[in-house]
Specification:
- 2 copies of one chain form a homodimer.
- Chain A is an alpha+beta fold.
- Helix content of chain A is 51%, strand content 12%.
- Chains A and B meet through helix 4 of A and helix 4 of B.
- The structure holds a DNA duplex (20 and 20 nucleotides).
Chain lengths: 114, 114
DNA sequence: CTGTATCCGACACGATACTG
DNA sequence: CAGTATCGTGTCGGATACAG
């Protein structure tokens, strides 16, 4: 547990980074193409989005498939393994909804106490 | 949700960083002093441990109380708010226990595919 | 004992421009 | 359309030494 090399330290896989979880959520309702992801994630530089997608693909959480046709493009989809993260992400959001106000309050109280 | 300023983006509060969650776990069974934390967290530089503890305190997840007596010292304890994170952390560990092997397999498969 | 001071390297994130 | 190339920035984590 306390060994930094312990794989369990990777628990929040792709959640620890800034956009991984959000990208997964964007794919929850079905496959999306690169440009479709850029709509909700407009603030993400293309380079960063690419890096995030590569990392998710590398970890087997999403697939990347080239699509012929017109217009040609690339489609990203969540794998079954990736879907197992959704429960986890939901837990994140529930915790936030329930307790984040208290955290923010503690934070501002801490500031004024300085 | 997609606004970077949205507070829900802070969901993995103090989990996103490297040691926050682990420090909380160290306090699960009761208060600990600074030096006691340094035993399991021997690899953490004192500066980093201090930063982590300050951040947790700032967010209202732990308390820091000065203890007179002998030896004098400081005691850290989880607050009720901090305890609400344990379910969340447990979910992390369960996910890892169940699915991490698949991630590692995908990762090595990805490497060899290059 | 409980930190703080200082310095450093690595890396994540980002803006912009360009390409097959 | 789907990226890559390049460059820049800031923050995080860490080692070491020192102080109240």
């Amino acid at each position: 547990m306390f060994d930094p090399a312990c794989p369990s330290r990777l628990s929040p896989v792709r959640i620890g980074d800034k956009w991984g979880g959000l990208v997964l959520l964007c794919l929850e309702d079905g496959p999306r193409r690169f440009s479709e992801l850029r709509v909700p994630l407009a603030r993400v530089a293309p380079k960063v989005l690419t890096e995030t997608l590569r990392a998710l693909e590398r970890d087997g959480l999403i697939t990347r498939t080239i699509v012929g046709g017109s217009p040609p493009g690339v489609s990203y989809a969540v794998t079954p393994l990736g879907r197992t993260m959704f429960g986890f992400i939901a837990a994140c959001r529930e915790w936030a909804a329930e307790h984040l106000p208290a955290v923010l309050e503690a934070r501002s109280a801490y500031e004024t106490r300085l």
